[in-house]
Amino acid sequence: xxxxxxxxxxxxxxxxxxxxxxxxxxxxxxxxxxxxxxxxxxxxxxxxxxxxxxxxxxxxxxxxxxxxxxxxxxxxxxxxxxxxxxxxxxxxxxxxxxxxxxxxxxxxxxxxxxxxxxxxxxxxxxxxxxxxxxxxxxxxxxxxxxxxxxxxxxxxxxxxxxxxxxxxxxxxxxxxxxxxxxxxxxxxxxxxxxxxxxxxx
Length: 201
Prior knowledge:
The protein is of the alpha/beta class. It contains six helices and seven strands, in the order E-H-E-H-H-E-H-E-H-E-E-E-H. It has helices spanning 16-34, 47-53, 59-66, 90-101, 124-127, 168-184; strands at 3-12, 36-42, 70-75, 105-111, 131-137, 149-152, 158-161.
């Protein structure tokens, strides 16, 4: 029996549409091998959305993503939008997408394939067997903490401010993802922080 999945495509900017076309081709091939079908719908995000609607993450895009089984995002941003105010840039759409979909955990594997070990700038004995997973929190902390911005001091000097803040529940949920991931892998976990200085550690 065929299983169908609805996927929202966010090609975005720059090379985004080009790599999205390849991703679609790969999914179709995988689907043919595993009796899966995919219903694709494209939506605007990033610079393309700014050009069309003035908003890096239109509400229609977020709604389409919420009504999908999966979302594929290719690339956003580019020099064309670099001079916009920070809160209007394409990257703001990415932060909004993370928050709007509750995507708080980013899993980043780092594994050196044996075939590519000599292509590394590091010595073979350093990278051989490397297989780590970095678990990164995405919706709390410095990206979303308030206050933030560039302010003028009493002396007329500019001062940049970013606030790192986490709630107990944000720490708990990312910790659970990290422990569950470690349990499925090497059963080892290393927390990287600056607990001797930062209260959020």
